[in-house]
Amino acid sequence: MHPESAWPALFRHLARPARGGAAAVVVVFAFLLVIAAKGRLVGIPLALIVMSWFFKYAYILFDHTVRGFDEPPTLSIEMVNPVNEQRPLGQVLILGVLFFALKLAQSYLGTPAAIALGVIFLFFLPASVAVLGLESNILKAAYPVAWFHVVRGLGLLYGAVLLVIFAVWLVLGLLWRLALWASLEIALGLFAILSIFSFLGGVIYERRHELGIETWASPERTAELESKEEWRGHEKLVMDAYGLMRAGSHIKSWEMLFDWLKSRGFLPEDYRWLCERTVQWDDPRYITRLTEDYVARLLVLKRTGEALDAVVQRLKLDPNFRPKSAADTLSVAQLAGRGGGASRVARTLLSDFAARFAGDPRVATAVALKDHLGPLAP
């Protein structure tokens, strides 16, 4: 998705934590953190546990968003299992390494160099979070080349991520200056963090093609699944028509196929699809009639090359096949007689033209073309 078309879709990612399981997490965890704050030193273990669970949920929300699910997940015991989810701890370790690198830069290169390096780290920090969220690999998340890959893939939308983070930080700073209730301030902070994770995941989802991300739910995947389900129904219809044919109910069988073609607008692609499935039927009249109608439809649509190809393919299996009408037969013969190695097809179609369409005004033209092409070689 191009940036200009992605902007409207991104706003829903910002607001996602306001509903569903994410909203419940914000309310419950804010309440628990208030209790931990009132406990002072005794409340530190509770605060650490709550924040560990919270950031595990943040990464899971990120996963859901990247995979294309719009509804926030509901927190479960499996999600906060320390064995299953180590990404928050991994991100802490990465931050520790970056902080250590800044201290070394300050010691050996001076404060200005450390500040410049710190700005670079802050710029690429969302990319590191994204890599860790996508790969669950701390080494890749600490690898600058992987950061560049994410930034390049997101393009201008990476700037939107940085802008959102700055705006959230600015708004929270202004709200906290108002000295609101502690519980409300904590809830706003938790909501802001989830909103950033959701937005980052949403940006990656919108640029999934550029980044090569495989989603679980997306418009194209939904369309693909719907198409597969639809064609399964079409396959069943053909099998039902085949069963009627085997039972000798030819009228009902053909009506079923014809009604299907009619309901879909007599598309040439549908004719071709039916021909591929009826060519092996016990009764050759079905493939013959379908090919006749297929060729006629292609000629009406001025898709003459495809019409000639259809006739050529059918003649290989059935040398006695001919287009249905005199006009169609002559049109294909004229097209084949112009060259391209299909002159034999033209001679075949014209060999019995006068007998099949006796009295038709096109007979004279067909005979003249037949004489011009010469006799049909044995």
How is this fold's topology laid out?
Elements: H1 3-15, H2 20-38, H3 44-66, H4 87-109, H5 111-135, H6 138-141, H7 144-154, H8 156-176, H9 182-206, H10 208-211, H11 219-246, H12 250-263, H13 268-278, H14 285-300, H15 304-317, H16 326-337, H17 343-350, H18 353-356, H19 363-373
Helix pairs in contact: 1-9, 2-3, 2-9, 3-9, 4-5, 5-7, 8-9, 11-12, 13-14, 14-15, 15-16, 16-17, 16-19, 17-19
Explain how this protein is built.
- With 378 residues, the chain is mainly alpha-helical.
- It has helices spanning 3-15, 20-38, 44-66, 87-109, 111-135, 138-141, 144-154, 156-176, 182-206, 208-211, 219-246, 250-263, 268-278, 285-300, 304-317, 326-337, 343-350, 353-356, 363-373.
- The longest helix is centred in the middle third of the chain and has 28 residues, at 219-246.
- Residues 1-5 have low confidence and may be disordered.
